[in-house]
Amino acid sequence: DVVLDGTKLTSLDSEAPARAVGIYRAEFADGPHAFDVVIQSKKYVRLLGGVVERETPGVVVDQLGVGAMSTRCIPMEDPAVSAPMLAYRRYDLVILMTGAADIFSMDIHRDLLRQVIALHRQARPDVSFLLVSPPDRGQSQVTPKLLTLGKERAEIAAEQGTGYWDLLAAEGGPVWMMKCIQRDMALSDQI
Fold it and tell me: Residue 178 burial by CB count (10 A; 0-12/13-18/19+): exposed, middle or buried?
């Protein structure tokens, strides 16, 4: 059941022969509200999220914040689920800011970036895309790999016609994180 301010708006049927995305849209007056989703089924139901937007033009930011997520995770998603969600959200700009965990897939990193860009372009051919270099990780044995990943992202951005932002350079370059830690501007975990 979808509940708004204590009143049931509708019951949604989640029964399907295969994994799929169901989208429910409701419109209501602007203002403070309480939303609830009540699962009545004893079967497995996955709620992938909710979106609350105003009709007036503005900026909408969707963030998938997953610690230690790598670029490799995105093409592994089920296209029967990811494709309709990407098409529904109507993104104007997608910013891919994975990277630090990509050191574990250096051999296929370029192909993974191409797959992620293709996934979004299939859903929204006119979407703009920005690849971001991995951040600084302080004094670490992985710094050379992170620098290589940043260089590869710049090359893929040029090849694919996407934007590129060198976050590492914007941060102040390699070992900038150590300077921040010394000035109590960052924690000692170097993240």
Answer: middle
123 close to 83: Cβ distance less than 8 angstroms: yes
Residue 64 has pLDDT above 80, yes or no: no
Long-range contact list for 53-62, CB < 8 A, 24+ apart? 54/30, 62/89, 62/91
Condensed to tens digits (0 to 9), the pLDDT of residues 77-95 reads: 888 888 888 888 888 899 9
Q: Please give the order of strands across the beta sheet that includes 93-96.
A: 93-96, 128-132, 163-165
Cα within 13 Å of Cα(113), Cβ side: 33
CB 160 within 8 A of CB 114: yes
Higher pLDDT, residue 81 or 99:
81
> Which pair of structure tokens corresponds to residue 150?
């940043």
